[in-house]
Write a structure and sequence with these properties.
This protein has 306 residues and is mainly α. It has helices at 9-12, 21-40, 54-103, 112-132, 137-144, 146-151, 158-171, 177-206, 211-236, 240-261, 274-288, and strands at residues 44-45, 48-49. Strand 1 (44-45) and strand 2 (48-49) form a beta hairpin. Helix 3 runs antiparallel to helix 9 and helix 3 packs parallel to helix 10 (240-261). The longest helix is centred in the first third of the chain and has 50 residues, at 54-103. The protein is elongated.
Length: 306
């Protein structure tokens, strides 16, 4: 995800990193060629004049803009929900860590609290890898040790397996009998919140925007852009390619932005910065445990986080 400081209006005109322009240049070149062909042939195809004017494009363009706005709103709703889920993940992780530190008796040998904190961090990393369909083995070995990581190797749903191990481990650490039930109830409430975050993220990943809906919008945008120069050529003449490329940029870019934002856990520039968010949760948990903090995630190139 692109994370950048605010820029003035002039610099925004030349932003390249994070803009979808770099992904739609071939389409714009194609639209420029079609517009130039319309100018060269004076709006004729195989010698026949295409009887188009600006009136239907004005009405249809308004309807298409509303359609694209609805599509972008649906995509942003997915992005916004994903961000709220990861915000809840941070809150529940901090709360559960604080409860473990305050209410769990430290064993004579020591290390129980650090082990539970490591398991909680491992859950966060396992969730990130599951959402991105990447291999969590290295992070799990670092956080859980080789033996426990090997036990999770064959699991299909590693985040849920780690969460279940946390619940099982905390079940026997409730303290005195008089407070054990209350302590377990508090732990369970936060573990349930983590489970809701896991389920919510999996729902977003496994339920994309219907394919037929995307196909309809894609075909409509390109049909409009291809026919547009034949409707404008009589009134705009040699300015037709410039106008059509600009209008095509607006419509095609809106479609491209909607496609990126609709997949909030991906690696696109406008997806969520899961690497930075995961490291932030890890640092927050370790700070509560008075442990050494890993370095913050730094941009891999100017203002870019993943």
């Amino acid at each position: 995800m692109i994370v950048r400081p605010r820029q003035n209006w002039f610099l925004m005109l030349f932003v390249w990193n994070g803009s979808v322009l770099q992904t739609i240049i071939p389409q714009l070149v194609f639209m420029g060629a079609v517009s130039s062909l319309a100018v060269f042939t004076h709006g004729r195809v195989f010698g026949e004049k295409i009887p188009l004017n600006t009136a239907p494009f004005t009405l249809f363009g308004l309807a298409l803009a509303i359609f694209l706005a609805f599509r972008n709103n649906a995509s942003y709703d997915r992005f916004n929900e994903a961000r709220h889920l990861w915000g809840n993940l941070l809150i529940a992780s901090r709360t559960l860590t604080s409860q473990m530190l305050c209410y769990l008796p430290e064993s004579p040998a020591g290390g129980d609290r650090a082990r539970h904190a490591g398991m909680l961090i491992a859950f966060v990393y396992a969730l990130k890898h599951r959402l991105r369909m990447t291999d969590p083995a290295e992070d799990l070995r670092r956080l859980l040790g080789p033996d426990q990581a090997a036990a999770l190797h064959g699991k299909c749903y590693k985040p849920m397996a780690v969460l279940n191990d946390i619940r099982r481990s905390l079940a026997g650490c409730g303290g005195q009998a008089a407070t054990a039930a209350t302590t377990r109830w508090m732990f369970d409430a936060q573990i349930d919140e983590l489970g809701k975050v896991l389920g919510g993220c999996e729902r977003i990943v496994s339920t994309p925007i219907p394919f037929a809906y995307n196909v309809l919008l894609h075909r409509t945008v390109y049909a409009y852009c291809v026919l547009l120069p034949f409707g404008l050529v009589d009134s705009t003449e040699f300015f037709t390619p410039l106008l059509c490329v600009f209008i095509s940029y607006t419509l095609i870019a809106l479609e491209a932005i909607a496609a990126e934002v609709a997949e909030p856990f991906g690696l696109a520039p406008n997806a969520l910065a899961l690497d930075a968010m995961t490291r932030n949760i890890e640092r927050s948990i370790l700070e509560l445990c008075d442990c050494e903090l890993p370095a913050e995630t730094v941009p891999v190139r100017p203002y870019q986080f993943t």
